[in-house]
Amino acid sequence: MKKISTLILALIIFQVNAQQRNLAEKLGYGPNDKLLIIHADDIGLAHSENIATVAAMKNGVVNSTSIMMPSPWATEVAELVKDMPDIDLGVHITLTDEWFNYRWGPISSKSEVPGLVGKDGHFHFDCASVAKNASPEEVEKEIRAQIEAALALGLKPTHLDAHMGCVFYGRPEYVASYLRLAQEFDIPAMMVNELFEGVVLPNKGLFEGIDLEKVKIIDKVIIGSPEVYDGIGLASFYTESLQNLEPGVNVLLIHVAYDDEEMRAVTTRFDHWHSKWRQQDFDFFTSEKAKKLLEEQNIKLVTWREIGKL
């Protein structure tokens, strides 16, 4: 019986992979084309983050972003993108607040999602605390609230993704809620093959009612790290990443903002992901060097809006 179950699971994985690895071709590209979404996380975090993200999309090569609805500056985003009807803007599902002196909490009533609230009355600082304290029902309620809040602002989300990966690496039930609500609202949800095979397929009972064949699986997600920042530097890392980009649909996650007084205050006591980091991201992806690299490497930019039309 165990061998049969293993064989069935292997066949399921093979069938899903065979379908999903053709995402580039479904978008109308060849199997050897290098496709890239240059995605600026965290719009809505602060005014500095907002205006830098919009500037990077208008004047640079950044072509996608996602909004943190619980953040106090989220409402400004709707005003800033009024003249960008085709903007690729998703909902950055946010279940934590990692900052020391810039705190926020859930959009849902705190009495309805007490597991998402820490001792200070705001979100927990990290994903581990969310997984330990928040029930799947609470997480699903908050994900729904954030999507509905974006819609209420007049935004038309092109996709869902997750801040700090808390939805992905908390509990399998969180991933089920994430995909279930993506299906309900007809919004593509970012998913990588490692997560799909490691969390979704082994827990298929949690995903009943979700059409897993319609989940759009990204081939690779690329993001800088503290080790990169302290080592070769972000500009070198991004240069090498573009030079060595593999065929398929790739997502490059960045964070753009200005190294100004506001962002220095928001990111105080942080050695990484701070205002200087975000300024460097902005500088690189609005540079002529970035544009030239894309051309030289024959990298084609695609968006979640395009993926959502499949």
Give the structure's gist in a few sentences.
It holds the Pfam family YdjC. The chain has one domain (2-308): TIM Barrel (Alpha-Beta Barrel), CATH 3.20.20.
Tell me about the biggest sheet? 7 strands, parallel
Order of helices and strands: HHEHEHEHHEHHEHEEHHEHHHEH
Count, helices: 15
- The Rg value, from CA coordinates, equals 19 Å
- What amount of the residues lies in strands? 5-15%
* Ends apart, CA distance between termini: 38 Å
CATH superfamily: Glycoside hydrolase/deacetylase
> How many distinct beta strands?
9
Number of domains: 1
- State the secondary-structure class: alpha/beta
**Annotated CATH architecture:** Alpha-Beta Barrel
Which shape, going by the Cα principal axes?
Answer: globular
Please report the first level of CATH classification, the CATH class. Answer: Alpha Beta
Would you kindly provide a written description of the structure presented here, covering whatever features stand out?
It is a single chain. The protein is built from 15 helices and 9 strands. The chain is α/β, with parallel strands linked by helices and 310 residues long. The chain has a single domain, classed as TIM Barrel. Strands 1, 2, 3, 4, 7, 8 and 9 form a 7-stranded parallel sheet that branches. Strands 5-6 form a two-stranded parallel ribbon. The N terminus is likely disordered.
